[in-house]
Amino acid sequence: MNGDHFKVRGSEVIIERNGFRLVFKPRFSLTGELSDPISIEESVDALRVKYEKGEGRLLLSSFGSDVVGVVAEAEGYSSNGILVELRSRLEGFQQLLLFHFTYDPDKYFAETPEPYQYPQFREAGELEYSPWSFPVHTRSFDGLPSSLKISQFLAKGDKGYVFLLPISDSGARGYMSRVERGEFSILLNRLKEGSWNRTGVFVFSTSIDPYKAVESAYEAAFSLTGKLDALRKNKRLPEVFRYLGWCSWNACWREPTEEKVVTAFRTLLDKGVKPGFTLIDDGWQDEEDTRIRSLNPDPRKFPVGFAATVSKLKEMGSKYVGLWHTLNVHWRGIAKGSELAERWKEHLLEFHEHFAPDPGKSFYIFRDWYSKLRDWRFDFVKVDNQSSVGYTYAGRIPIEAAAKQLHEGLEAAAYVSSLEVLNCMSQQPENVFNWFRSAVARNCIDYIVPHKKSRNKLHLYFNAYNALFMSQVVWPDWDMFQSHDPWALQQAVARATSGGPVYLTDEPGKTVPDIVKPLAFTDGSLPLPDFPALPTEDTLMRDPYNEAVPLKVFTQVSVDGFGTYGLVAAFNINRDDSVVSGAVTPSDALLPEGRYWIYEYFSNELREGSAQFKLNPMDVKLFIIVPRASWLAPIGLREVYIMPRAIEHACVFDDEALLKVKEPGLLFAKTERKVKVDGGEILEEEPLLKVRCLSRVIRLSRT
After folding, report:
1. Strand partners of residue 389
2. Distances 159 to 201, 537, 538, 542 between C-alpha atoms, Å
3. Is the pLDDT of residue 456 over 80?
4. Which of 38, 241, 508, 567 has the highest Cβ tally under 10 A?
5. What tens digit of pLDDT does each residue of 497-508 get?
6. Residue 3 has pLDDT above 70, yes or no
């Protein structure tokens, strides 16, 4: 074991990298309760931690020069589920971005005075936790509730960044809590008593590049747990989510019917919008007090069954159709005495008022169910209420083991039935560490109707910062939205740049085509960027809800034959409706040094090198950063927000250029000389070249 990773000082271990110091005291549960160490000794391959009633080991592994992973070993036993506590403090930072999953903000779903106050802090119970992750910008651990459950954090110091990631492993949820006097505890908690012998504990990753610090931490953590294939970069985005969609939830609430769903899809077509998928959300069930009784839908809502509904939608042009359910089958499980309880009786666990899947036998449940969905021609499932794992199985099955078995069973069953999975209400560590094949998950608390300005702002804030860690394991789903929302343009641009699913929940007849149509090509396919949008570095450690600064997110678009474009979306989400100002440069999108044009989608303004901007309350700007490597700089087709994705291939030579576009449309470009066009019609030459493409291949020649 390389002693350069650490120092030992009495009963504490010190990890020091790039100006940051993490100091912790390891407390292990050996005979039931956590014990304080008596001494720590270095050996060839581990730190030997001696306690009054036994001994444990800490293994510190290097993943490159700036990443350290820590594993704990012992012949231990915990009476309350907590295997390890590292009482810790971090030194050398000035700014902190933490992510907690303790509770939803108070009355967030209710009517509250504007502007809404966020963040909110309160003490919570030891077992209380939220389905969602909430980012918090702060400068210190002081003043935070002691019970806050923190899944991870990014800190900034003089020399760069550090990312601290607790590991969920060996049945235990990894998180940080017990915040007091600037200290915190890294905890491994199974929520069930039992013996243990080895578990990953945390990863400590530093870098001058914050995105590298996060990525390296996840690579190390998933390497330690043997789950590298579960990282997003080793998965594919399912084809269904490469299309614009529509979901029944906010449009129908818990009363979807065949008539409502089919009518909603038809009215979208009437508005000139062509969704590629339809999602039938909650409310379809044959249920009793939110306990499901049958796999068949409520006959009052779908009188001839799902097969007929799916067939109608597909005949109308919906390529894919999905169905909602929860990880425990329904909100309160399976009704006792029901047809379904009898059907699955060998694979269920009994609780006081309902049944829920036995995690180790969940494959048989989901395989049976999903084979029916496949027969009915469904293509994917939205699996909600994944946060129920801890509350449902606490005290019976170690929480991370239950999550792992449920996800293994569900995802294997989905695979054999050719169904894709959209995860939801799932931002607890035990879920995030166990999405083996599924590649998409909801990224924040619900988009909520009725519309409120503060909730719209916070929805963008939560999504932008949560994507920093969620994008390591999935394509973040920024949730559905309504194009008839008073502030829908912000929401639309956020979805377009997010890199994840884009789907509406418009009420029939209310769709606003000017907002929706630029989200997709005419066949419903999305002009997706290269990777999920992330906050720009100058925004990363700022709080654009409480500070008068813009929220900026970036991604890139690679155009075959031409190069890499940058995309930067800027939003004014300031709580107090202040005017905010900012600037966009190529470095915001992590582009290499070079010459670039910067085009703003809504104003049609073109700048060279950088662009200054101001945003009024609730305004949005979308900047496209275009390589300026030759006499022609194509921007893309105006018909979509993500303009350069409409260029499938570009070849630019000394005197001519060939461009292949996704479909005919209005091409914008910057050129240094006049040109003539084959395959299109020049509408304007200055300040931008605008060409009506009459075919998919056009030729531009310098005159």
Report:
1. none
2. 26, 14, 15, 18
3. yes
4. 567
5. 999 999 999 999
6. no
Report residue 697 as tokens. Answer: 């291949």
The single-letter code of the amino acid at 111 is E
Convert the pLDDT of each residue in 74-91 to its tens digit.
Answer: 999 999 999 999 999 999
pLDDT digit string, tens, across residues 305-357: 999 999 999 999 999 999 999 999 999 999 999 999 999 999 999 998 999 99
Summarize pLDDT for 404-438 with one digit per residue, the tens: 999 999 999 999 999 999 999 999 999 999 999 99
- CA 522: distance to chain centroid? 27
Q: Which residue has the tokens 């936790």?
A: 129
SS3 assignment, position 50: strand
In this structure, which amino acid lies at residue 456?
N
In which band, very low, low, confident or very high, does the pLDDT at 197 lie, cut at 50, 70 and 90? very high
Four-CA torsion 525, 530, 535, 538, nearest 10 degrees:
-140
Q: How confident is the model at residue 130 (pLDDT cuts 50, 70, 90)?
A: very high
Interval 58-64 mean pLDDT = 95
Query: Residue holding tokens 């908690």?
Result: 189
Q: Are 173 and 399 in contact (CB under 8 A)?
A: yes
Residues 6+ apart with CB under 8 A from 599: 605, 606, 607, 623, 624, 625, 626, 635, 643, 668, 670, 688
Question: Cα 186–192–196 angle (5° rounding)?
Answer: 70
CA distance 53 to 279: 56
Percent of the chain with pLDDT over 90: 97
Half-sphere exposure of residue 647, counting CA atoms within 13 Å on the CB side? 29
Which residues, 6 or more positions from 212, have their beta carbon under 8 angstroms from its beta carbon? none
Angle at the Cα of 446 from the Cα atoms of 322 and 567, rounded to 5 degrees: 85
Catalytic residues: 384, 446
Determine the length of the chain. 703
To the nearest 10°, report the CA torsion of 116, 118, 121, 126: 100
Q: How many helices (H) and strands (E) does the chain have?
A: 13, 44
The answer to whether residues 137 and 543 touch, using CB atoms and an 8 Å cutoff, is: yes
- Nearest CA-CA partner of 545 in 109, 20, 120: 120
**Cα 348 from Cα 335, distance rounded (Å):** 11
pLDDT of 488: 98
Q: How far is CA 284 from CA 188, 246, 281, in A?
A: 38, 16, 7
Mean pLDDT in the chain? Answer: 97
Q: Are strands 380-384 and 420-423 parallel, antiparallel or unpaired?
A: parallel
Over its C-alpha atoms, the chain yields an Rg (Å, rounded) of 26
CA distance 235 to 366: 22
Q: Taking a C-beta distance cutoff of 8 angstroms, is the pair 460, 493 a contact? A: no
Please indicate, yes or no, whether the overall pTM of this predicted structure exceeds 0.85: yes
Q: 23 forms bridges with which residues in the sheet? A: 14, 89
Sign of the dihedral through C-alpha 387, 392, 398, 401: negative
Percent of the residues in the chain that have a pLDDT greater than 70, as a whole number: 99
Exposed/middle/buried for 395, CB within 10 Å: 0-12, 13-18, 19+? exposed
CA distance 68 to 479: 35
3-state secondary structure of 137: strand
Q: In 175-291, where does DSSP find H-type helix?
A: 210-224, 249-252, 258-270
Cβ pair 532, 514 in contact under 8 A = no
